[in-house]
Amino acid sequence: MSTPANSSAVRAFDRFARRARARLVAHYDADFADEVLTEAREELGRLAPQLPYIGGIRNAFTPVVVVNGWGIALHRAMKARGKTAADTIRICAEVSDEFIASAPGLLLRFVGWAAFGPFTKWYFRRQAERSQRRRYEDDFVFELEEGDDGEMSFVFSECAVNKLYEAQGVEELKPYCNFFDVTYSRLMNMGCDATETIGLGCETCALRYKHGRATPVPRTLEGVVPRT
Fold first, then answer.
1. Which residues of 15-48 are buried (b: 16+ CB within 10 A; e: fewer)?
2. 6: closest CA among 58, 61, 69?
3. How many alpha carbons lie under 13 Å from residue 67 in its C-beta half-sphere?
4. Angle between the 179-188 and 105-114 helix axes, to the nearest 10 degrees?
5. Residues with Cβ < 8 Å from 117, sequence gap 6 or more?
6. Which residues contact 45 (CB under 8 A, 6 or more apart)?
């Protein structure tokens, strides 16, 4: 379903591309970077109208779908030049790491702390309840669980990212679908264990947070996400 949000995905990609170019040049060279990003932007123009609508701004996960559209476009351009899914995700992870780390440390720590507050939990409980109505077939479906030890878990029985990868024929990206969760969790001290994913053949995707806990790196992301 084509929407204004889908169209804006192409414009927003240009901001991502400026950072991605520096990482592509560092790993490859300037000609490769320019060719890949030009082709990726063209590919995103074709892909954007196909990005699923899952509720727009009412759904906190709409940006996740958009950003993964960028990743698919970048991957197709890199794959055409002999690069792997891991190569694509490495660029995306480094850009994400650089972008988040550019924020003041105090702000990052505050956001990481606030994520466990009562308003955030109330908000995502409502999101979870809405998702279980399955109004949008391409949406996430999840439950919010809280443990006695302070752990807070998002348990997805259906994952919009993996659905998107399957619909677009880029299943090779599925084992890396959780890279961003590892990145922001580490920088915000959120202790996210993201080792259980549908992309690795598990029945659910689970993001299990515990404030202050070290963020483990899933085996598929070893050597892919930055360790800073």
1. ebbebbbebbeeebeeeebeebbebbbebbeebb
2. 69
3. 16
4. 110
5. none
6. 10
Helix (H, G, I), strand (E, B) or coil at 7: helix
- pTM comes to 0.91
Per-residue HEC secondary structure of 109-173 comes to HHHHHHCCCHHHHHHHHHHHHHHCCCCCCCCCEEEEEECCCCCEEEEEEECHHHHHHHHCCCHHH
Task: Encode pLDDT of 97-150 as tens digits.
Answer: 999 999 999 999 999 999 999 999 999 999 999 999 999 999 999 999 998 888
Phi-psi region of 133 (alpha: psi -120 to 50; beta: other; left: phi over 0): alpha
Using the structure block, give the residue that is written with the tokens 């932007």.
41
Contact yes or no for 204/156 (Cβ under 8 A)? yes
For residue 72, give the DSSP letter. Answer: H
